[in-house]
Every structure is written in structure tokens, then in C-alpha cells.
Sequence to fold (1252 residues):
Amino acid sequence: MYYIYLWTPALHLFKSLPNTLPLVSVRSSNFIFFNAESIIYDIITKLSSPLVQQLGLWWNFKDDLEDLESIVSAIKTVLLDAEERSTSNIPVKHFLEKLKDALYDADDLLDDIHTEALRKDLLSGNKLTKEVRVFFSSSNQVTYGLKMGSKIKAIKASLSTIQNQTKLLKLVPREYPMETPFMAKRRQQTHSFVPKDKIIGRDDDKAALLKLLLEFDSEENVHITPIVGFGGLGKTALAQLIYNDEMVKNQFKLRMWVCVSDVFDVKTIVANIIKSVTNHAPDQNLEMDQLQKQLRGEINRRKYLLVLDDIWNEDRERWVSLKNLLIGGDKGSRIIITTRSHKVAKLTSKCQPHVLKGLSEDDSWSLFKDIAFEQRSADLTNSGFVEIGKQISEMCRGVPLVIKTIAGTLSFIETQNEWLSFKDNELARISQKDDEILSTLKLSYDHLPSHLKNCFAYCRLYPKDHKIVVKTLVQFWIAQGFVNQSTSSQPLEDIGFGYFKGLVERNIFQEVEEDEFRGMVCKMHDFMHDLAESVAGREGSLLNSNSSTSELDENCRHLSVDFSLIPLQKGKKLRTLLKFSNKKVVNMSDASWNWIVSDCRCLRVLELYDLNLFSVPGFIKKLKHLRYLDLSWNPHLFFIPKSICKMQNLQVLKVEFCYMLERLPKKIEKLVNLTHLSCAGCWGLTHMPSGIGKLTLLQTLSMFVVDKDGAHGAAAADLSELGGLNSLRGELIIKNLGFVTNAGDKFKAAKLKEKQHLQSLVLEWRGVISDDGKEDHDDEEKSLKDLEPHPNLKKLHLRGWRGNAKFPSWFSLLTNLVDIRIKGPSKFKHIPSFARLPHLQRLKISRLTELEYMEDNGPSGGQADSESFFPSLKLLHLKECPNMKSWWRNSPIDDDKDDDKDRTSSTMAFPCLSSLCIKNCPLSSMPLYPTVDDELILVNTSSRPLKCTIRMSSTVTTPSSSNFFVPFSKLKSFEAENIEELDHDMLEECLENMTSLKRWGIGSCSWLKSLSGLLQQMNGLTSLKIKDCKELDIEGMQWEPLKNLSGLEIDNIPQLVSLPLWLQHLDQLKTLEIQNCNGLRSLFPGFQHLTSLEKLRIIDCKELEFSADGIQKFEDYTSLRHICLESIPKCQHLPEWLQYVTNLKELHLKFLPGLTSFPDDLRCLTSLEQLHMIHISKLPNSLQITHIPRIWVDCVQHELNGRHTFFKRLIHSSAEDIKISERGVIRARPSSRPCLMYRGRRAKGAYMHFHD
Fold:
């Protein structure tokens, strides 16, 4: 069982619980970030390498290598004693620092030798004896050998001197404690890693704060409530508990959360508040005046809740300057502040703060025992264990963070005597110190197994409150040599993830959860981050513009840095260089590249993602120690230099979402240690390089692209090269299967069945395009049976296979599948039954134009059948299957309209389906779906299954639940469009059940004239879409049920002539989209009252004109961020009010043939980040848009005529991204000419695309 506990960052005392507590600095701590066991393990491994030994023999320093191994092994025996004494013994501390430098030098030197040996081995075709003869034929190599021999002797002498010091310091040989069977057993216990929302001992605090927020009547519009308490008590978690309470959500429609922490920079805080509201960070180049206008536009006259977490600022002027920007909220607005300082609380609020106290003795014990005895419940019956545990719990003084950390440490200590020793010795000593919390947490660090200490300290490189991607963190640890492989059979990634689990079980990490795109993520509590910073010392550093110093310590080995500061640094000893912050860098300078490659020769980890790189220099090969290289999210990167293949130590190469990357480097097989090649989102890749199949250590290969028509000849790998890559994990996408020749043999040679670790497999076909522009349907010979995957597979996607109409028999063997997606076009008339797959949760079927049914057998409704029918299915999508009229092959389609026959057409029901989408499938007979509670979308389909489901017994049960419920009573989203036989009475019957509905869409109902009656019970509606209801009168609609509406879409409503005045009551409306309303002539009078609007889209409104009638200056329109005007032929000029929408970020103008003039000055739109113009045929040369960062102009040839001056000025402007595309006649198969690139003064990229 895991909990979210109440604890926040702290540096205060907790010996007692007074109201005022002094600060304690940890920056000058004597803690040392250095656990030498891992680096010594790495050195000994390299010394014992056959390659290194062989070269030592030929280079005549084999004896020196043996002596070096003996010295290092001897030093290892006294390490534990030295590390424990270093915290209180200065000479021992200095000894460790010298040892650390010498070992790092030895590791780098041995890595040099091992790399050189590996390179020569590769060049010789893996024939070392021949290679050695070649090796000694070169005088350069002899010189290199002599040089290495000299360096080894120097290292040996240095370490020998250090070894002699161990005797002077009287260091005693001691063994690191071995892992006991008890500890191993505990670590093997399985758990979800996802904490449960359980908080102990804070019910009274929650109730008191809720009363202040919801009931207290303040004279001020915005009332401020501080929560005060020292570190570790749980201020942040309590604020989170309040913030997510349902009553609070209902009271405050606008809620914002900002973590302030150490640096109180008003501009940064304002930007983060705006980001919390809009989910988009404002432009970093905006001035403070522009930001404050945007902020006031978001919160003025709106009732809001804002949490400012972890404030340290005691400067009144700074606080007042922020407060003045926040007072414009509507009456009843609230600000919650969490702080450790009573002075801060007094500064920020006139009212008494809520002072958080420690947990009671009973609550403390409850928390302690839940963690310490979590997997040893039998010990709770042992009075001795319980008594010691209660005493330790009392010594934690009611601080949840300390209780949790100490209990987590004790959960790994096996015997009662060890618990007693911990209490009487280590914990008792802490009570005599001042900085108790940090020192107490240090006990947890001291008790970490040696292999976890470096892993913990390395996390200092992340900013506070950062979401850490666990897979990446483990890869960092491996690259640094922190992960030791005891047996060759277990992958390093598995061992590293075991390390992570060990840290989680000791409560080092929090908020561990699964992210849909990044996998497992976690955070580190701020106090744990402080501890990591302390133990890291000078070896780890994080530098940005807010750092107290911009200079790098000469002893720093691991750096996270704002890349704009790179040229200022020295990095001779750096082993890690991470990119700090999301700030864009306008292409890396040559100086930065030179610094990285020339100064940072010892790098193991290098992050260069999202730096707007256009190229990578060939001399990057000089980073021969590099294990991890991330070039992802550089969309203008066209190729990777082939010299990168000389970096034989490289383990991880990431090029994800480099959209324009066309090829991977040739001779990639030389990267013999490569385990991860991440190329997801590289849609420009044309083929895989030949030789990739030799990388047998690969665990990640995101995508394998089959060469089209053999266009790249021998340089391209064929599908058979997948055959030897049986260590692949995660997801594999195979593209262009339609281009495989000799498919039967190649499919078999890929050996997908042998890839037992693959979790996800995506098989994509693209038919060969013939000269007449049509795709050849030549998939008949490309049988799916030869692409059988391993039964362990969890996700299978098939896209575009046009082969025979039979599914292979192996589908029934994939019993572990969780996700199936089949997308045509294809010839399937039926597909195998998925109903009995026990773990299947998501099933998506689309574009199977010949599919007639899903199940071969007819429907039945027995309890046994129901329990085994799709027992886990939560999501079902059926789209574009025009021939599927029934779910079952043997189910007759009865055209009789009798209700009783409708009800008996099926008694089978999905037991736990939550989301259902049926589009363009005439299904009139299918299993019922009363449990759907998330989303129900029905478009161009029959109403019969809906009618049968809604008219089930008013209280029904399903196998998944014994509770009685009303069908659709918990449904949140419902969309119905062009439903056969749907009438007003049936729709009303459905909506009466849908009492929890938040989003509703209705379309193609020619009989619908009014929504007023249907909306009576829908006060909670937040989104409404109305489409193709030709008789509907919007003018007369009742607005009261729509008062909470945040999104409104109106599509093809001929009765709409102007926006109705009742829209003024929708003060929470954020998105308005109007399409195909050819009767619409004006946006007024309703539009001018929509001051909360953030997004406006008007498309295909043939009669709409923008006039000045009734327009006032839109100075209140500070919320509007996105405007799209498309296909409005009568639009001759943009509305003048546009220039007053000063916070606008995106402006899209498309297909406006009559547009001739723009507002007088678009330069006042200083927040505008993107301008997209398509076919604006009368674009004026005088248009002032060169201040906009991203501009895309798409036009035909005659639209360019006479506007070269404009385009020339545009290309040489300060814009960061410019794309000018010329389009002529689009043929069946468009082909692209080469892209011309331009750069302005700040331009990241300017392109001119030309199409035939």
C-alpha cells in the first residue's frame, strides 16, 4: 500500500514544534557525493577485458595492469570504513577526494584503451591476432602504445601513494553488507507504484480550510489564506487536497497552481499563472507590461482560486507588486499560500494563518506501521517489534516526511536487535543536533545499499518539482557506470529499474505514475532534493540564469545547464551535460560545439534535444567516451554524420521527432554497444541502413522503414535484418510492408515470434503506387501468417493490409493482448473473435469496408457467457464499416419496428465498457452497453442498440458489478448524428438518464426545432455541438442550462443570422466555432459580450461580413488567444477590433479571396506567435508582420506576382520560422522539389516549398 503523505520542502528545526523556527542551511554540508564501489567495479571489469589484456601484452604494460588491479582491489577493502569516517574526519575526507580524482582518471584512461582495442577489433573483422599484426605495422600505433604505457605507470604510482595513506589513516578492511534473503524477498514483492490518495491525520485541517474558502465572507474581493509550517509537515499536500476537492471545483471554475519556491521573480510567477490558466507558456520575450495585461485579462471579474506554493520571499515591495496584479478577481476569489515563515504569512495576509502541526501520536504510529510493516505483517504480533517501532515513531516528532523515510529504511532491516541498535545509536545521536530533519533523512541515505547512493545523488541534476522520466534516468545511471551487471543474462535496464524500485520502496521518490507518452514518471520531494544536492557536493551542479553563480566548479563532473551559458564554462572533468530549462536556443553556435567537443572529452551523457539544430558536426566523434546522445526534437535536422559510427561506446541514440531526418548513418553496425535507437516520429526516414541487423544488443528500435522499390539499393536493410534482433522491447513499428519483395521469405526471416520482450507491434502497409497514380493491390502473397508475433505481445496494430480475407490462426494465441487496432482498407469479411481475450481493454476497427460481422456465433444471454464476454474491454471504436449490419453472423435483421422484438434482438451486454464510438456502421444488432460512462459517439448508424440499452430494466446488473444502476446515468459525453429512427421522444428519453452529462453533440436532426425542453436537466453541461439541424431556432433558446458552457460549436444551422444576445450570459465560454452557416451575416450583438473567449473559429460562412457597426474598442478581450477565419468570400477587410486583441497568439487566415486590407497596425499584436495565411490573393506589400516569430504563407503562382518585395523583406526579418509555399495544379501524385532554406537575423528556419 502506498500513500500520498503530507510533506513539503523544509530546512527548519523540528526538535519541538514552536511557532517560529530558524532556517538551517545545508549548502555547506560535509556530505560527500562519492561511492567508489561502482567506479572500482567498472575499472576491474575493464582491466579483466580480454581486449585490454591482449593489448597490454603487445604494448608491454600487462604487468602494470595487473599491479593496478591489485592496488584498486586493496583500496576497495577499506572504502566502507573511509566513507563512514569521512563525515567527521577531515583527513579521511581529503583522502577520499584524492582517491576519487585518481579513480576517475584511471577509468578514463582504461576507457581510452578499451575503446581503441574495440575499434581495432572492428576494423580487423573481429580477428584480433591479425589486427595486432596490423596494429604494430604502424609507427603511430607504437607511439600511441608507449604513450598509454606511460600514463598507466603514472596512474599506478598515484594510486599506490593513496594506498599507502590508508595505513596512516588506520583504515580497516570491511565488507559492504550483503543483501539478505529478507531484503531480496521484500524487493521482489510486486506493487503498482501508483500511490493511493490516502492522507492520515489531516481531516480537521481540511475542514477548517474548506470553511475559510467556501463560507467565510471577506470584505476583500480576493482573500488570502496562508498555511504555515516547517518542512516535511505536509503544507503542499494539504493544499493539493483542498485544490482537488469537489466542492472547491464547483465553487471555483478557474483554479490555478504555481510552485514559487526559492526565487521570487514576479515576471516568472505571472508567466506561470498564465500558463496554469491557458496550459500554454507565454512568449519568453514578452515584457512585463504585456504579461500583466494578459494576466488581468485572464482573472479580472472571474472568481478564482490560486495556490502559491512554497513562498520564501520576505521583501514587501516584491509581494505588493504581485498582489496588485491579482486583486481584480471577482468577489469570493481566494489565494492560498504555503510557507515555512510566519513573517511571510504576516506579510501576505491580514488574517491569521492556518498553522500546521505535527501528527498525533496515534496518527504517527498508524503511518509508521503501514510502511515499516507493509510486507511483514506477522511482526505486528511481536510485542518487541511493536514496542521499538512505537518508540522510533515518537522520536520522529509527528513529521510525516521523517516518519515515512525512517519507516521505509526500517522496512529493509530484518531483526529486532537491528531495530533496537538503530534507535539507540544512530537515531539517538540525531536528537542532539540542530539540523534534525536533514540529518534524520541523511540516516536513510547512509543506510542505502552502496549501489544506490550514486543513483540518488545523480538526481540533483533535475530542477525541483521536475517530472523525472524513469526510463531516461535509468539510462543515465547505466551510462555513468552506476549499474553493475552481476550476470550477463540480466539486461542492465532491468537491473537499473530494480535500483529505481529500491529507491521508491525507501520513499526517495514520490508521485510515481504512468504517463501515456513518456512511460513511468516520478518526482522527488524538495527536501529529498536538498539532500541530494548536499551529498552531491561540488560534483553535481545545475546552472541557469537564476543561479547564484554562472561559473562552473572545476571539480564538477555532472552538469545541468541553460545552453545559453555554455560558452562561459570550463568542463574538462564533465561526465554529464544535460539541457536545463525549456528555453529555446537559436541554433547552437560554433563556439558551443567547440566547447562541448574540445573541453568535455570525458562526457558519458549529452543532451542536445530541442535546440533547433540544423546539423551535427563530424568532429563529434571525438567524444569517444559518450554512452548517451539525445538529438530529439530538432525538426530541421536532415542527417546525422557518418562519423558518429566511430563512437563505439554509444549505448543510447535518440533522434525522436526529427521530422526532416531522411536517413540514419551508414555503417551503423559499428555501434556495437548500441542498445537503444529511438526514432519515433521521424516520418521522413526513407529506409533503415544496411547492417542494422548486426546490432544484436538493441532493445529499442522504435521504427523499421522498408525501402520503397529498392530505391536505395544495398545501402538499405531488408526486413530479414530484424531476424537477429531478439532483445527488442517496447514498441516496434514496421512501415512500408507493401513494398517487401519475396514477402513470404522475408516475413519469416524477420522472426517476430522470437521477440518475446516486445510489448507493442505496429504493422503498416503502403501499396506500391503505379504510373497511373493508383495503388497496386499486390498484398495477396504477403500473408499475415508469416508475421506471427510472440504470445507475450500486449498491443497489436494492423494498418492497410489488402491481402486475403482470412485472419491467421495465431490471433487466438495472443491471450495477453490489451490493445488491438485494425485499420483498412482491407478485404476482411469477418475477423476472429476477440470476445474471450481476458485482458483486452481497447479495440478499434476502422475502414474495413467489406466487414460483415464480428462474431461467427449468434447472441446468447446466459450468465456464464456474459462473464466471459469481453471481460476487460473498456473502449470500443467501430468506424467506416458500411457492410456491418450485425455483430453476429447468425443474427437475423428484423425490420419489424415492434419494441418487444427490439429488446430481444440481443440480451448480451458488455460488462465494463466505458467508451463507445460507432461511425458509419449500420449496426442494428449488437451487444448492449449500459455501463458506458465516459464517452458515447453514434454517427450514421442505427438507433436500435441505443433504444434497447436505454430501455433495459430501469435497474440492471452486470457481471462486473452487483450494484444496481440506471444505464448512462454516469455518462459524461454523448454525441449523436444522423441516427436512423431517432426522434424527439427517444432523444428525450436518453437525456433523462444522462444526469452527469458534461459534453453533448447533436446533428442531422431535421425534425429538431428547439433545444429548450431537452436542456432542462443538463445544468452541468460544459460543451455543446449543434450540426445540420436545419429547422433549429437558436435565437429562442433558453440560456440558463448553458451557464457553465465553456465550448460551443455551431455547424450548418441555416436559421442563424446573427449571434444571439443571450450569449452574453455565458461568461465562462472559452471556445466558439461556427461552420457552414450561410445565413450568418453578423457576429453581433452576441459576440461583443464574450470577454472570456479564448478561441474563435469561423469557417465557410458565405454571407458574413465584418463591419464597424456597433463595435467598441475591445480592450477587455485579453483572453482571446486563437482566431481562425476561413472561406469567408465577403470578407474584404479584417475587423478593426482585431488590433485590440493584444494577447492573441495564433492568427489563421485561409481562403479569403476578397481580403484586401488589414487593420492599420498589426504591430500592436505583440503576443502574436504564429501567422498562417493560405491563398490570400491580394496580400498588400505594406503589410507589417515582420515582428511575428512564425509565419507561413501558402499561395499559388499568380499570388506571388508583384509581391517579391514583401517576401524579400519577410525573409530578412527577425522572424524565427518562415515557410513560403507555392502551389500549382495538384496532380494525383504530388512531388516535392528541393526545399530552399533562408535565415533571417534570428531565423531558426525559413523555407520555400514548391509543388508541381
